Input
Amino acid sequence: MRFLNIKFILLSVLFFVHFTINAQEGPNLDSTIALKRGFYRTYQEFKDNNPTLLIPATAVIDDEFISIFTEPFYCYKINLIDTFKIEKYTPVWGFCDGVHIYLNREKEFRKRVRYDIIEKMGNYYYFQTTSMTYSPGMYVGGGVGGGGMMMGGGASKTVQQMYFDFASGTEELLTKSKLKKLLQQYPDLLQKFKDETSKSKKLKMYFKLFTEREGS
Output
């Protein structure tokens, strides 16, 4: 009886270790793990490296160049050549082509939705996306009797730098103030960043340095 109890305890420990290791195998924790090709319905499927909607071999991933002032930007679309049927508005967190991971901006499937490629940095993922900025117009002329007109206003695209940590998947906007908070635990990096003259252009570089320092 005592032998059986010891055997049961050993088996339980082995099962726990095996489960813990497998639970942490994901695209974040081991870059040597082969990424599985397919659509991730949820963030959990991404964490588990387990897309449940397979992408057919005929699918083509197209890159689209967008010029935003002097800053080049690429986004991506997937062309399924009408051979793969997936219902519109099906929840889709993103997809993997077997090499790269692409984040769905809308978090649901539509043929024309754009995807942003994400880049692994330590225990974080970094990506860039675009957003629309709207500026109000100005009503001029007219006076008491009316007859004025709206001048100016409109919409413009801007590039936003984003990141999320593997544990939570919560997307955060990477700004100068946010980066300063992250760098507070590393005073030397924080001071170097403060001394930079073009901080907005160095956000990605210092965020990467932060992730490397945190993972060391």
Residues 188 and 194 are 10 Å apart (CA to CA). The chain has five helices and eleven strands.
